[in-house]
Amino acid sequence: MIFAVAALVLAALPLWWPDPYVLSVVASAGIFIIAAISLNLLLGYTGQLSLGHVAFFGVGAYTTALLSLGFDVALPGLDEPWVVAPQPVWLAFASAIAVAGLFGWMIGQLAFRVRGAYFVIVTISFAQVMRMVAINWVDLTEGPMALNNIPPLTFWLPGAGVVELVSKASTYWLVLAVALLSYLLVAALVHSRVGRAMIALRENETLARSMGIPVTHYLRIAAVGAAAIAGAAGGLYAHTVRIIDPDVFMFMFTITMVIMVIVGGKGTLSGPVIGGLLFGLLPELLRGWLAPEVQWMLYGTLMVVILVFMPRGIVPALVRRRTRPARPVQSSTPAVAKEVA
Amino acid sequence: MNGLVQGSTYALLGIGLTLIFGIMKVVNMAHGELYTLGAYVAYGFVAVLGLNYFGSVLVAAVAGLAIGALIEWMLLRRRNLAAMDEVMLIMIGVMIVLQNAELLLWGGVAKAVPSPFTQEPVVFGAVSVSPIRLFVLGTALVLLVAFYLLIERSRLGLAMRATFQDKDAAKIVGVNVSRIYTLTFALGSCLAAVAGALLAPVFVVNPTMGDLASLKAFAIVILGGLGNLLGATLGGFALALIEEFGAGYISTAYRDAIGFLVILIVMIVRPQGLFTSKERVG
Description:
The structure holds two protein chains of two kinds.
Chain A: H1 2-16, H2 20-46, H3 54-69, E1 71-73, E2 82-84, H4 89-111, H5 116-136, H6 138-141, E3 154-157, E4 161-164, H7 168-191, H8 193-203, H9 205-210, H10 215-241, H11 251-264, H12 271-286, H13 292-309, H14 314-322, H15 332-340
Antiparallel strand pairs in A: 1-2, 3-4
Helix pairs in contact in A: 1-7, 2-7, 2-10, 2-11, 2-12, 3-4, 3-5, 3-10, 4-10, 7-8, 7-10, 8-10, 8-15, 11-12
Chain B: H1 2-24, H2 31-48, H3 53-79, H4 84-106, E1 122-124, E2 127-129, H5 131-153, H6 155-165, H7 167-172, H8 177-199, H9 209-224, H10 229-249, H11 255-269
Antiparallel strand pairs in B: 1-2
Transmembrane segments (chain A): 21-42, 54-75, 87-105, 117-138, 171-190, 218-236, 248-265, 272-290, 296-319
Keywords (chain A): Cell membrane, Membrane, Transmembrane, Transmembrane helix
Membrane topology (chain A): Multi-pass membrane protein
């Protein structure tokens, strides 16, 4: 109910506040909210702290940009260069989601052999390698010179044919639609048998394993889903900003997503949305009267304070206040595990 | 030869990180920022105040100790080191704050620190090396040996090793575990700051140099096995040499990527590290 009302209010935003600046700010916040929603699937529901999530975002951005622009690149072992003509934007965008999902599967194969600190370091390294490739494979990515003139997203309208989404309002609606879809997708996944298995393995992996839950299988599902949604966010980013360079793989983007999830409340559906709105809109509000460095210091401090005093984030803290007395959290685990197995 | 110089500072970075991880189970994401801090202390002393470079290394060491102790005392102690993930995120917060404080204080422009030695290279037969690099290598080696002796021979080292093995048992036999934690974090931070100060005249100093340093430090620690001091030392030299040779024979452009590829490969083949049979300190 709240969800439907919120969705309607958000969808109507361009009607009652058609300022293009406001819409583009909210749309770019929305792109990061999508990324945060996807990260939450891994971090919040399976409990795997991935600090390389920006890799999927960047892979999505580069895939859709390269396919919609077309490219030719010499590959070792091939006499002829590999030529790809410019593809329709919707196809490029869909491929971005698919390719990012594929990377998610690959990284899942690789990284889920290890846990804890090792997992984190593998994911960071992966994102760094992707960044180095984007910088150095100039034939394909133009390196630091960036890919320019990425076409805007298109949409097929009955009667009007293919429409380019250039107006701020249409971009906004598209981002909103993808965000709602990702939210519903994650919600459905989390409330299904798969989601219960993920939570079970987050709470107690050994127990989950002993109950016969194929842990790696569910981790892989989470990784592919999270990567695909992050790829969609990256694709949206590429088509709205219309220019991308290797900075889309910056560690700070991962940090932004992590802060959104942590501050909002990991493992809750609305957490990344609340955190994302906060950290997506705050920079714009603070712009002009705080230097960016001071802003970042503020975010860092806020993150530390929240982790120390409110380790579960804003949303659970609010919910718990409303439904006192708090129910015991620990005891639910075995029941969940039993239900899944 | 450049590989050895680089390797010795890598080893200093790696030892600090692996010590903190091994004893406290804290993944210090802010390690690179302490390295940057050391470099800036050297810059402030030598280039701005016109003071002695050797003094600046000492001051960097003290600053590293102080800040490390402060971070541990203010943030980590409270959390009682409950969940590794949360602590890691707290350290990321610290990293963001430190890095932006550095940006704010010194601006984004890279700074050069003048070398206290002549540019005249010292020649040993076929190899020639600048005196500053020789000094970096020598100091780093002395520190590595001193540190090794501290861990292996002193009472403090004994207490640290005991805490590493089993912190509850250590507590029972009268080790002040929380004091060991503070000391460990301070010492690890100190080593990172010294590494930064040592390398400042060799490279330029800039506020984001810590990012790469952090990641390199992780690569080193992974190579050696988390919590393994000797492994971290060897890992530091190994990574520097791999990078040098990779840059020489494959491509200079991918120099920094090689480190991460090495991590990925080691992780797949031998997640427990190359030099570890089982986890231990020393």
